[in-house]
Amino acid sequence: MVIIPVRCFTCGALIGDKWREFAERVSKGENPGRVLDDLGITRYCCRRMFLSHVDLINEIIMYSRKV
Q1: Interaxial angle between packed helices 32-39 and 44-51, expressed in degrees from 0 to 180 and rounded to the nearest 10
Q2: Which of 59, 39, 48 is nearest to 11 (CA)?
Q3: Which pLDDT tens digit goes with each residue over 2-36?
Q4: CATH number for 43
Q5: Domain total in the chain
Q6: How far apart are CA 34 and CA 32, in angstroms?
Q7: Model pTM?
């Protein structure tokens, strides 16, 4: 389970649908910059969303709220 924003925080461009392909290609060893170019992500604010994303959901789930 990965939580990536659906839209870029700065410009509002749709980016959530491109995350899976980006993650798969980068995990296979491709250059992240070239993958973003191939996906058509050219704005630096959108590129930031991909390159700076840290998947913390597995760590956060451990601290579920108990009422």
Answers
A1: 130
A2: 48
A3: 678 899 999 999 999 999 999 999 999 999 999 99
A4: 1.10.10.60
A5: 1
A6: 5
A7: 0.77
